[in-house]
Amino acid sequence: MEFLTDYGTTLGPLGFPMLDRQARALDMLLKTLPGGKEHAYRKAVAAPAPTELNPGERSDVSWISTESVDRSNEVVIARGMNDTQFAANPLVTLQHSYWCPPVGKSLWRKRVKDGERTGIKAKTVYPPRPTTWPADKPWQPDQALALVQSGLMNGKSIGFLPTRVHVPDQREREKNGWEAVELVIDEWLLLEYACVFMPCNQDALVDQVSKSRDLLTPELARALGIDPRLLSSPNGQATIAFTPYEEIEKAIARQVGELDLNVMAERAVESAWDKARGRV
């Protein structure tokens, strides 16, 4: 795997870059965990929720994990988060693409309860272009921030390692409305999070495309696992077969480096400005 040294100097035991001391600590932890898929490293996208933009700041606050039941019929308990590993080098990637420069930095992660929703919120800052950055090269944090502000990239995807889990009994399932829950992740190690285009479910993805059809390119549509014909469909009702998260993620990883994010960001800003002036 190719990666930039911004993220670390070594390829960690789970296949992505980190600092040497992070890699050594993680390797020691992995040796203490029981085997089996219950303690396997995994990724998850938080349920769709509005991203909080901060006026006057190049930042957002968004959910990166919630205690809702995920696609694997698991529940991740927010108070069980341990983010000490991630805090050592809290860089935020685009689509977990470690061969591309970071688009942001995480200032904090904390447990939040908002009405019926409980989970982890994080603040991501998108640094301004430094004066030493080459004028002929795009500054990816600018592009990412424009996409977030336009509503095209509000997802956050975490990578984490369960360290303590249990199977809920019937009483616990009934108490919490967890009829389908097969595993509760009580404690977990946050290892990474990324800005992502993809919401956590296919229906939300279709809805996002139908609302933003004019801002999406066929290349981006294919990267998201969407039939490009949907972009030209007058009612946005083209049939889209369900695509597993893992396959979509692989497709995105292959194509994200080929996307012209600068053009996408310009289109997003122009559209948002037109809407603010009442032109659309």
Structure in words:
The chain is 28% helix and 26% strand. By secondary structure, it is of the alpha+beta class. It has two domains: 5-196, no CATH class; 202-276, no CATH class. Strands 3, 4, 5, 6, 7, 8, 9, 10, 11 and 12 form a ten-stranded mixed beta sheet that branches. It is globular, with a radius of gyration of 19 Å. 33% of the residues are buried. Mean pLDDT is 80; it is low at 199-215 and 234-243.
Tally of helical segments: 8
Rough outline: globular
Question: Into which percentage range does the β-strand content fall?
Answer: 25-35%
Number of domains: 2
Distance between the termini: 44 Å
* Mean pLDDT level: 80
Helices and strands, in N-to-C order? EEHEEEEEHEEEHEHEHHHH
What are the SSEs and their pairings?
Layout (H helix, E strand, L loop, with lengths): L9 E2 L5 E2 L1 H13 L9 E4 L6 E2 L5 E8 L7 E3 L4 E2 L1 H4 L3 E4 L9 E11 L2 E9 L14 H10 L5 E12 L3 H7 L6 E14 L5 H10 L6 H6 L21 H11 L5 H16 L4
